[in-house]
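Structure ticket #2291
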Amino acid sequence: MNYKPPYSLTDSIIFLVEQIGEALDRASMQGKQELRLRRVNRIRTIHGSVAIEGNTLSEKQITAILEGKRVVAPPREVLEVRNALAAYSQLSNWVPENEAHLLKAHSLLMAGLLDGVGRYRSQNAGVMGPAGVIHVAPPAERVSYLMKQLFGWLESAKQHPLVAAAVFHYEFEFIHPFADGNGRTGRLWQTLILSRWNPLFADLPVESIVHLHQQEYYAAINRSSAGNDCAPFIEFILKMILETLDTDQVSDQVSDQVGRLLAVMQEGSTAALELMKKLALLHRPTFRKNYLQPALFAGLIEMTRPDAPRAKNQKYRLTAKGRSKLRG
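Resolution: structure written out below.
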């Protein structure tokens, strides 16, 4: 099979690949992560991936599930988390180019949530957006053939793994091979592809960053589909990876910027613009990258509306950990 997914290598993609390579070198120099921090990042990964699909459980609740504790929450959401924990724990046992392994991954992710897990859809499907159908997937009878083509391409791909993983992720979402669970399966498989290239990706919670940019995630897919070129999606994914690395989530240290943010937090909740005003900051991207996101990922603050990260009425408040850090 000589299938070649439609994508172009832009200057931005090449630059991002170089930047990620440098960031990975810096992360590798820090040595292996402590077991505790690896566990924290895995919880963030699970939280990000299921939250994109509408799951409302917090990182604290996911931690409790991981520890075998009882959690008072909708049973379906608890099952989604348990399934995701089981699937991500199997990353080291799967081969990215093995189609049977992907079907097994889907079986784990969707067990008890969907009839016919681990099997491609038998009916036509589309992706719904706020204004209606935003993507009509290929006919069901073509899914098996298209997936075999995609796996054949991945097996012989000469592209940089960062690019190949993003291309596979996009093509997988475009084909939409399952009746449900395509998003979480596609993100899992991207992590698997990248972790085979660099083991650091097995513990790098890219999904948590994607969750914070959820609308851009879907917009990048739509732009790629409209232009018949998945370069916009590749660029988006590479930016998310670089942002994850730059946030330094393998460290448990609180930066000076995060310390300043905690110092201006009051009891109750505060909007982002008000926090920027208190910090005398004018550049929102700088505030998000250096202050807000590191504090969120460290579990020092939390959103008042975690189900809608980009909501206009979104506010932030200190967690118990954040209050303790502030006192100490």
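Closing remark: The mean pLDDT is 88.
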